[in-house]
Amino acid sequence: MELRQLRYFVAIVDHGSLSRAALVLHVAQPALTQQLRQLEEELGAQLLHRSAHGVLSTDAGKIFYEHAQAILKQVADARSAVTQSTTRPSGSVTLGLPHSISGALALPLLTAARATYPEITLQLTEEISGNLNEQLKSGRLNLAVLFDDGQLTGFETTPLVEEDLMYICRAGSGWVPPDQAISLGAALASTLILPAQQHGVRPLIEQAAGSAGLALANIIEINSIAILKSALLADMGATLLPLAPLRAEIDSGALIATPVHSPAIRRKVTLCASRNIPLTNAASAISRLVREVTEMLCTNGKWPGAQLLE
């Protein structure tokens, strides 16, 4: 198996056809077809379904595509690590952010990276935390912001902030609690709009409820922050989330945020890197910058509800 075969296969999948991939790669289509056939013969599996309209990955092809992407990225990182300067780091760095963190961190980090390290290409990917965990393990990400649930022992970790989960609902709604704070039991008795189980905030809520002898009753599962926000504004229920992803609506008065007690729920936000794949100089520089930007946001009050962790 050769690296060029991996590059060819990834290009075919990305462009959806052999002919378009051949044009982009500047390779004759018969040669591309031959390399694909050799790859399938070596693996003993069909990777693509071919038709007059293009190609689609088989189940085996989908699995191989993820591994091929990870391998090609690690090769590029290894080349970059050898050639780049420690004083002027350059190259590409891919950082994964959970949906509920990107609103607070993404834009300030991009701005700081462009100003501080103009020769680094910072690529941000937004995913649910379970997907980020797997992508970091496989090498498809250099860094990822994850929630410390006690299961991050396979990563190098840098604590960032701790956030309180708040009870949030539409202003003027029947879900607005009568007091300045709400117990976890009362919050769980509401119709709650929450992410699914694989999302970082949901296991925290489930664990807190179980420890208090409580149960989640009426749940509407929505993984998209944008759709969840729309559901709150449509008064379909309340949610338990940090302030940051809903800050604009809370500041405008469209949504009301109430502290939760008995018990309060907090999540620790952590920057993670693989223990097995060395960071490039560029990735190390971005890792330091994430911490610096986080400190700035907390100091300036621009990451609401977050307390810096030492």
TrEMBL record:
Lineage: superkingdom: Bacteria
The species this protein was found in: Massilia haematophila
Family: Belongs to the LysR transcriptional regulatory family.
Protein name: LysR substrate-binding domain-containing protein
InterPro entries from the UniProt entry: LysR_HTH_N, LysR_subst-bd, WH-like_DNA-bd_sf, WH_DNA-bd_sf
Keyword entries, A-Z: Activator, DNA-binding, Transcription, Transcription regulation
UniProt domain HTH lysR-type: residue ranges: 1-58
